[in-house]
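Action item from last week, closing it out:
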Amino acid sequence: MTTPENTPTTAPNAGDAEPGYAADAATTAPESPRFDPQQKLDELEAKHAEVADAYLRAKAESENTRRRAEEEVSKARKYAVEAFAESLLPVKDSLEAAIAIQKATPEQLLEGVHATLRQLGQALERNKVIEINPAAGTKFDPHQHQAISMVPAEQEANTVVAVLQKGYLIADRVLRPALVTVAAPK
């Protein structure tokens, strides 16, 4: 039997360990944020628009870079010989001046030809065109020399005996090999 003294007057909450705890927790705990799908959709759409804009800008920048590079390559090809041609103009001027002299002596002409040849050599050197003129006895190099014939000689086999025509390199690439005769094996 229960007496009125043993009967609780209020039923405690199921999760309360002590009376009054639930009230304190409710007033101090932050309210949990409620998931708002429309807000999340708006955030994602804004982020998508930002990423799409960045992509389009990067794509346009890469197209512009590619186009500028193509234009520069085109101009480089078109005007590649400009510096070379400019360095040859004084040589042409010297030749024209020599032709213009009516009563030149053979000595004057020879002196002018030598001066013009020096100008031409300097113009070629400025533009990285280097002579291939191997000395006698130099080992034959098939990358820079073209053997015209093999001749018996008093030197080591497969060495240059004489240069028939000079060769030329341009930036380490053979423009024309030197034509040479080579010592035959004994």
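Closing note: The chain has four helices and six strands.
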